[in-house]
Amino acid sequence: MVENDYICDLNAQISLFNSHFNFINQEENMKSFKPNAWVLPQPVLIIGTYDKDGRPNAMNAAWGGQWDAHEVFISLGSHATTDNLMQNPTFTLGFATTDTMVAADYVGIVSGRNVPDKVERAGWTVEKAPDVDAPVFKELPMTLECRVKQKLDESETGCFLIAEIVGVLCDERFLAEDGKPAVEKMGLITYDPVHHTYLQLGKTVGHAFSDGKQLR
Ligand SMILES: Cc1cc2nc3c(=O)[nH]c(=O)nc-3n(C[C@H](O)[C@H](O)[C@H](O)COP(=O)(O)O)c2cc1C
């Protein structure tokens, strides 16, 4: 009897809690999926390195981002890029665009270990970065110059790379009137890990640290 009262009370409390927080009825409105690496949106980063003979290489990476104000991180498998970073811990990080999408995908499916002239085949123009010993691909609108600071959980299958941003380069064609990079002009793409497609980023829809003030 006491137990029944307790269960009735618990059910009443749960239903009150659900209605209070307006919980969505999962069965009717939400489909559940098994855990997936579906953090959205994902970047299309192009890591540029030189090999031991000074030949440029490029690879595509979606599993990366900003570690803190001055650092980036990348989840890096075992690649030619990883080999290159062993002997020269500097690299560039460019952002792929609609115009460079085919080449960006190409450098993500072919390895410099098997195709040493991969960057030439991608059709990209290479220039050495001013502040690090790594290649800049001139077709990409904006590029970070980076230096490896730390490798976490390093093994033969790769590591989590943390790197300092030592400089930022932006093609002058992609500057805004205030002289800063105009992200909207770049035609940047994002990787959709659900359907394995690339989507172009769209237009400005609001102002950060500002529009929310309407609800204060
Ligand atoms: C859309 C996309 C995203 C990728 N993201 C990553 C990633 O985050 N980390 C990684 O280690 N490899 C990633 N890859 C795989 C590498 O880009 C790929 O293995 C490439 O051939 C490595 O080139 P390399 O051996 O010349 O360095 C990705 C590939 C694609 C197409």
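^ flavin mononucleotide complex. The first strand starts at residue 42 and ends at 43. The helical segments are 2-20, 26-29, 80-87, 101-109, 118-122.
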